[in-house]
Hints:
mainly alpha; 2 domains; about 0% strand
Amino acid sequence: KLCKYHHFLCSLTSQLSYLIGLIFLQAAFGLMELSHPDNSIPVNRFVTPLHIVPEWYFLAYYAVLKVIPSKTGGLLVFMSSTCQ
């Protein structure tokens, strides 16, 4: 008769070794099945990715910053709308 502690320890050890094996395979061979496909797209510093959208409570400020082409002017309008 096996005690429950021995069964629990064997089960936990096998699960932990399986997890460590998966982490090792991911680190050693760079398996990409677990990563999002957007992570493979080359970076363009001047274009914001389309899937990045601000939260709903920032949409008004985001619209103000998108309308004003100058960075300084956008910052001044943003600060004046915030400080009202």
